[in-house]
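RECORD TYPE: protein structure
NAME: Secreted protein
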Amino acid sequence: MSMFTVRKPLIVWIALATTALAQGAHAAAVDVTFNASLSALPANSSVQVLNLGQSAVAGLVTSQELYFGQGDSIQFSGTAGVYNGTKSGVAAAPYTSSGPQTTNYLAAESNGPVTINFAQNQQYFGMNWGSVDSYNTLSFYQGSALVAQYTGSNVVASANGSQGADGSDIVNFDFNNSASYNKVVMTSSSPAFEFDMIASSATAVPLTTSGGGAPTEVAAYLDAAETNALPGEAPAPLPGASPLAALLLSAAAALAFQRPRPGVAQAVAGAR
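PREDICTED:
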């Protein structure tokens, strides 16, 4: 089955209408479509999917800043960083249809977040949220202003950190041109907030897994200058990892399981 085929017979759409802080006497509505029912990322040619490579050793691969796209970056603090495999009490590999993820993934820890910065305003964000915990928090910002925020409890009814097939979900957020974001922050009050298959788009994306083309794979680099490598050049590998081009996106994409969802997911809008 194609990685862009919906395996679940019922797709649940949740439109979240939130209100941003008023600017002067006027308030702007933020309409976010949140979906945790798809078995894959949207099939859309405007979507870019981040390639994090694959390491041969389990545990922390690097906590150095990563660069991708056109001026985009990922920053870590504390023991947050790029991980591979499962390290007890620290991080667990997100689950896929073929078992625990074997490629690298990102993890926010209790002593440090993961911050993804975009040079251009974005309309769509997606990822595979691994071993979802109630204390995992995903926040979207426009500069320093909070646009929308979700916890693990918004994704699953029992966000208890299960490391099996019932513990990971592909989540997608489309801002429907009602607002935009240029920063995403993952935080967790306990170990850990693990995620991979990080996808984004500067244009609104219909949340469907068919009919929109294939996402574009974008490699991550340790050196900002490497993002300007000539076409066809192999990207610099992460420490202890094979070349980033070795990522097999199709092996990580399909999640074939179902489980109860909260009836309503909530977004928090405003500035902090």
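COMMENT: The first helix runs from residue 152 to 155.
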